[in-house]
Amino acid sequence: MTTTRTIAQTSPLGVNETASYRSSYVYVKDGIEEMALPPVLQGRLRLPLIGAPLFIISHPALVIAQARAGIVGAFPALNARPAEQLDDWLTEIAEALDKPTADGRRPAPFAVNQIVHRSNKRLETDLAVCVRHKVPIVITSLGAVEEVNQAVHSYGGIVLHDVINDRFAHKAIEKGADGLIAVAAGAGGHAGTLSPFALLAEIRRWFDGPLFLSGAIATGAGVLAAEAAGADGAYIGSAFIATEEARADERYKAAIVSGRAQDIVYSNLFTGIHGNYLRASIEAAGLDPDQLPESDPSKMDFGADKSTKAWRDIWGAGQGIGSVDAVTPVSALIDRLAGEYADARRRLSLP
Predict the structure, then answer these.
(1) pLDDT tens across 45-75, in order?
(2) 0.90 exceeded by pTM
(3) I want to staple 222 with a disulfide (CB 3.0 to 4.6 A). Which of 3, 154, 198, 217 is the partner?
């Protein structure tokens, strides 16, 4: 099916030090190779789905609601402000997810997103807090650093690294990441420009480990399509902005509900990295969405207050928002996604 890539690393998944991702995650069913999720995810997901960490918006209430409804909930460590609040958040989340759901299920695990860019001055201290709390999944962005991966592996956690192309995917795995999040065209916030089909196909030529797809997914059919294209699951962010638990301005939620793909603008002006934003929020800031200047990527600063202000004033969103029709509780959104996922399987005569 694919060639095996052997990566020298210490794995938290009980395999040898020089472990093949193929032998770790691929199994054979009825003579056909199929992907296996990491052990931390097996038997705990209602849908093969991660709720993407949303800068400013994701906080304990949202993460807890996502995980208790059966998907991975995630938040950026930088959302906890001041930094000392991160310890409290992790305690609150762990305690809430230690209790079974009303129907007796074990909640899904949660994840913390760490910005690994050199401008994030909190990385070392935030990572130490995550290690102390044994956060099950760490999602890394904007830099692959071996020491970060080793720290997470030290207690048995796993690292998923988000990438926008195959070159960055290779770097992440070579540095010891356990899995990848392919951020394709149309994703909300920081995003790439590649077709999801092209990006997944290139990565799957050499990588058989955990792989999730991000990019304009807001339906259960989209989750199934991600699997059909080679991913192990999907990564949805924008749809969760329009939930009751999201810590977002009500005008922002309303804009998600009323917005369509044509309302999304791709620019690097606001953070130095290209991303997708709502046209109306750019216009409200007194800017012409069709005449935005280019920003100098070398001036990126994810530790500065101005970065937070930019995300508060300029609203990130992906091209999939046209499928969001109302502000609902997280549980209702996941019910919708699960129903659409089941309907899509039936249309294809899948069991």
Answers:
(1) 999 999 999 999 999 999 999 999 999 999 9
(2) no
(3) 217
